[in-house]
Amino acid sequence: MTVDTLTRPLAAAPAVSAAPHAGDPRTDWTRAEIAALFDLPFAELMFRAQTVHRAHHAADEVQLCTLLSIKTGGCPEDCGYCSQSATADSGLKAEKLMDVDAVLASAAAAKAAGSQRFCMGAAWRNPKDRDMAKVVAMVEGVKAMGLETCMTLGMLEAGQARALADAGLDYYNHNIDTSPENYGNVITTRTFADRLETLGHVRDAGISVCCGGIVGMGETRGDRVGFVHALATLPRHPESVPVNALVPVKGTPLGDMLAGTPMAKIDDIEFVRTVAVARIAMPRSMVRLSAGRESMSEATQALCFMAGANSIFTGDKLLTAGNAGDSADAALLAKLGVRPMTGAEPMRAAAE
Ligand code: SAM
Ligand code: DTB
Ligand code: SF4
Description:
By secondary structure, this protein is α/β, with parallel strands linked by helices. It has helices at 3-6, 31-39, 42-56, 100-112, 132-144, 158-167, 183-186, 192-204, 221-232, 253-258, 268-281, 298-306, 326-336, 346-351, and strands at 61-71, 117-122, 148-152, 171-173, 208-210, 213-215, 240-245, 286-289, 311-314, 339-340. Helix 2 packs across helix 9, helix 3 (42-56) crosses helix 11 and helix 11 packs parallel to helix 12. It binds S-adenosylmethionine, 6-(5-methyl-2-OXO-imidazolidin-4-yl)-hexanoic acid and iron/sulfur cluster. Iron/sulfur cluster (SF4) binds next to loops.
């Protein structure tokens, strides 16, 4: 059986690849094909995900990334899940953009703890031009330490993306978050099309794309199908695909709406299915097990790694929410016989 055969769902007709180069992953998935993958018996889905994973990635490696909130709270956007939205009543205090030196000190600590990538996040709708010099200095400084650099600052104009690329930014995180049709139920202050526009500017500037979303927001299976389908049919797959499990925060519309309901936590098996389908549909991308690991059992995380997740955020904190923590992660990775990744990601290695 070839890998190409394995990336096709059982129920779907043989597909014709629309990829521009022979060997490039498919970007012509139909929604029916993605839905058929979700519907597979669990063992069959896991087998296919494992087989695809092993054809493109080292099965015993997980990439370690560290997050830092460089500008916390007071965000003008109304994302229903987010503690940092000014419309949320989460008790989070709004802060100013951090100083460059403090960011670099935090990056140095992340490197010393074994992290490969340093991801800096700002609670902005978009960066203002007056912020750019500081943000550029942060990228240059972190890059000079030999860390990979990633930023997530909200929407970017084409010129801002070019400035970040010139500073040496490796990745830009900008999530589509959910299916196109569910987007308006989660966020009203910007559109799905706005998200795609920024992703285009990031690609055009030559920065690698980190794009994923959240499961467990009360969305339907159809929304999870639409979410993976939207990612896997982008003109080029994102190099990194973060799959977050909603961290329900008190005072946010989604945290409050789901509290005390059966939907308050995504079903573990459904979460693993989402990871597996993302792995099969985007074979070369890094699939990052992101927010929500703190409340995930070791067994569920192990299933996620077997389903093809190969990247995590380490440390005690994400941006504002708690994370599993370095000692818990070290113990889990040792138990599973997994090593921190040191080499380049497959999609970047292929492009270089
Ligand atoms: N402001 C920037 C933006 O939205 O593009 C960057 C920061 S934002 C916090 C980055 C991503 O974190 C969001 O797109 C969302 O997918 C994820 N996220 C935020 N709050 C979360 C939560 N409570 N649970 C799970 N994921 C969350
Ligand atoms: C992503 O998809 N997940 C990370 C990263 N990109 C920036 C952020 C998770 C945030 C979780 C909630 C918090 O810490 O506030
Ligand atoms: Fe602002 Fe980003 Fe939070 Fe949305 S997810 S409210 S844009 S910080």
